[in-house]
Amino acid sequence: MPRRHPDSLHFTLNWQQQLSEAFTKIEDLCAYLELAIENLPTSSIAAKQFQMRVPLSFAEAMEKGNPDDPLLRQVLPVNDELVEVSGFIADPVGDLNSVVMPGLLHKYHGRALLINTGACAINCRYCFRRNFPYQDMQLSKQQESQVIEHIQQDSTLSEIILSGGDPLLLNDARLAQLIRHLETINHIKRIRIHTRLPIVLPARITKAFADLLADSKKKIILVVHCNHANELTENVEMAIRRIRHPNITLLNQSVLLKGINDQADVLCTLSEKLFDNGILPYYLHILDKAIGTGHFAVSDNDAKGLIEQVQHRLPGYLVPKLVKEIAGAESKQIVL
Ligand SMILES: *Cc1c(COP(=O)(O)O)cnc(C)c1O
Ligand code: SF4
């Protein structure tokens, strides 16, 4: 097969259309994957608490007929979510205490989170945001202006992190406007974008978006959220190639998930494949203890053992930092 040029990234449906056609019914996803629903521990109650949402582009990377597929397990609503586990609470990371104003979360020195939308293209069952009321909140233009004004006033801030939800659910025009506004603020050196969209909906990486980042006056850091090497499909790789540029640093963060990526082999393969695509592993997060996610938990001790094994097998730059978030702490905590 001839090698495809990066710009052969082409889709029949644009990203908004793909998004609106994402799987939201367990039956539909199971039928697509040729799985008999009656043999699976699916839960409609869990799906009611936190809707299932899976774009076809993500489902395509799953193995048909495999109920234990590591991508499927990230998104399928199951009975285990209804099990109460002590210590698992609604706001495990204490985000609600750090809200400066609607849309701005300032917890750590020098950097603040700008949250423009609470929506995501995919609903990951392990997500701590599953219990938040702001699922589909979108910042109004006026609220956004107030946030920008606040950032302008606070010269201790040198980095703005666009987060969510997923900031890439904003359209290109809206994102361009936001980034242009941030570019007018001198003390802001870097704009960081935390997004899972290049992985779960590669069609989102439009030429206009890639150009916006490449042409920015600020340094751009794009942190993709990829948990398993199988997520790096051919289309995802092409999308990543489209955003590679000297002005843009590409990093990855993963969440350590039981039964999904809690094996040294899986983590090593992920790091290698990320690097093949110009992405460096940044953080491996210990799961935040949100209600409904207990079945994904890996103990700190097991996590340390795993990362040691990875460290014995890979060069240092391919070993993600094992971190956890502690409510009220001044930074993420490195688990050693
Ligand atoms: C994770 C996080 C950051 C970024 O932390 P880094 O260690 O710089 O990656 C900033 N603000 C909040 C609220 C966060 O949760
Ligand atoms: S915020 Fe990230 S982990 Fe949570 S549902 Fe959205 S994409 Fe998934």
Structure description:
This protein has 336 residues and is α/β, with parallel strands linked by helices. The chain folds into two domains: 15-82, no CATH class; 96-334, TIM Barrel. It is built from twelve helices and ten strands. Strands 1-2-3-4-5-6-7-8-9-10 form a ten-stranded mixed sheet. The longest helix is centred in the last third of the chain and has 14 residues, at 300-313. The protein is globular, with a radius of gyration of 19 Å. It binds pyridoxal-5'-phosphate (PLP) and iron/sulfur cluster. The site of pyridoxal-5'-phosphate (PLP) has 9 residues, from strand 2 and strand 3.
Compact overview of the structure:
By secondary structure, the protein is α/β, with parallel strands linked by helices. Helix content is 30%, strand content 16%. Helix 11 crosses helix 12.
Query: Helix and strand succession?
Result: HHHHHEEEHEHEHHEHEHEHEE
Ligand catalogue: pyridoxal-5'-phosphate, iron/sulfur cluster
Helix share of residues?
Answer: 25-40%
CATH architectural label of the largest domain: Alpha-Beta Barrel
* Continuous helix count: 12
Structural class: alpha/beta
Q: Could you list the spans in which at least 5 consecutive residues all have pLDDT below 50?
A: none
CATH class of the largest domain: Alpha Beta
CATH level-four homologous superfamily name of the largest domain: Aldolase class I
In round numbers, the mean pLDDT is 94
Report the major sheet: 10 strands, mixed
* Count of distinct strands: 10
Amount of beta strand: 15-25%
Shape field? globular
Q: Could you give the distance between the termini?
A: 46 Å
Cα Rg: 19 Å
Tally the structural domains.
Answer: 2
Strand order of the largest sheet: 1-2-3-4-5-6-7-8-9-10
CATH fold-level assignment of the largest domain: TIM Barrel
